[in-house]
Amino acid sequence: MTYVFPPAPQATIAVEGTDERLPVRRIFCVGRNYAAHAREMGKDPDRDPPFFFTKPADAVVDSGETVAYPPETENFHYEAELVVAIGTGGKNITEADSLSHVWGYAVGNDLTRRDLQLKAREQGRPWDWGKAFDRSAVIGPVFPVAKVGHPSSGAITLTVNGDVKQDADLNELIWSVPEIISILSHSIALAPGDLIMTGTPAGVGPLVSGDVCVVSIEGLGSIETPIGPKED
Asked: Which domain does 196 fall in, by range?
């Protein structure tokens, strides 16, 4: 096969404790999956069917890398999240079988241009400009299930310059990981390398140039993101 120009490099994320990299196929994100966060966003946290948005695979950023303050926003936010890495694909997966499709788990930060997201929401438009921009998915090393099992509880916290901004527990997820996987797979055939960012707790807020943002999940360690100068 001959390409008209070289194809883009494969997006990857680190694997904890090895030099291996996990290839990223797609990134699915669950919206408003903690009740307190739904309330702070002005929405009812009732257990309605979950909704999803996506980020491009090449939005991934390793822990420790500097992320420039992105263009076209004056309200750039952090969002601490548990990330699920799919290792075995499938469709119409039952909730009981969902966890057998998971390769591992990681700590994530769903960076968001909040002003653009809210404007799109008010206008009934897609969230892409607020969520799916360059370098908007900070994802730490993936821990294989064989090492960490399937975390369903444990502290998830985020600090900015050492000050705690988000502090919750994974057991507060409205929709659990098995439920999310099953629901997604009934709409889209999942494949190895798909990542699922499972939602953020309450306490989201702004980042500015010079900040250092740290997200931690019990049993999965921490990721760190320095925020650089604003892009032109």
From this structure: 12-230
